Known about the structure:
The chain is of the alpha/beta class. The chain has one domain: 3-Layer(aba) Sandwich (Rossmann fold). Helices cover 32% and strands 17% of the residues. It contains 6 helices and 7 strands, in the order ββαβαβαβαβαβα. The chain has a 7-stranded mixed β-sheet with strand order 1-3-2-4-5-6-7, sandwiched between helices. β2, α1 (37-41) and β3 form a beta-alpha-beta unit. The longest helix is centred in the C-terminal third of the chain and has 19 residues, at 199-217. It is globular, with a radius of gyration of 16 Å.
Amino acid sequence: MIVVPPLDADAVLWSVPPEERAGRPLLVLLHGYGSHEEDLFGLASFLPEEFVIAAVRAPLSPPFPAPGWSWFPIEGLHARRGEAVTAATERLLTWLDEQTDGPTIGLLGFSQGAVIALQALRLQPTRFAFAVALAGFVADEPVPTDAALAAVRPPVFWGRGARDEVIPEERIAHTSQWLPGHVDLSGRVYPGLAHSVSQDELDDVVLFLRQRLAAKAAPE
C-alpha cells in the first residue's frame, strides 16, 4: 500500500496575494522528481499574467541522498504502479478542494509533475480546463473515468525533447498512442533537447496558454 502524506499548504508559492486571486484562472505548477516548488515557479514571470499561478511541493521525500521532493517512488516496481500515481494525484485534488476556488483551473507539470497533471485529468475529467505536460508520460494502468475523459477531450500540450534519456521509450510509445484517443492533443518534439525545458518549448507553452485564455473569453 502506498501512503502519501497531504500536500503542505504552507509550501505553496503564489504569484499574487489572496486578495488578487478571486475570479481569475488558476494555473498549478507541478515539479519533477527530486525538485521543489521554486523550480517551475521561476517560469511564472514568463507566463501570461492573467493567470494566478500556484507552485506546489510534492508530498514525498526521495530516498537519501537524492534531494528535494517527489510525487511517487521510482524504485523498482513502484515506477510502473498506477496506485502510487493515483494516490499522489488524489492529494493534489484534496489540496485544490481545500485551498482554491478558481473558476478555471489548468495544470502544468514537468516530468513526474506531468504524470500527475495527466492523471488529474483522468480522475476528474470535467474539473480542469487544460493541461501542459512537459517531459512526462501517461501512467500505464487504466482509470475507470478514462472513457469520460475521452468524451470531454480537454486540451493538452505535450512537449518533450528528442534527446531525453530519462523517460523510457516504452512510456513515450504508450503516451503517443494513448493521448490522441482521450484528449485534444497538441505538442512538439524538440530536436537536441534533453530532459529539460528550452526557450522554444517555453514559447510554445505561452502560446498554448494564450489560446486557452482566448477560448475562455470567446462567446459560446
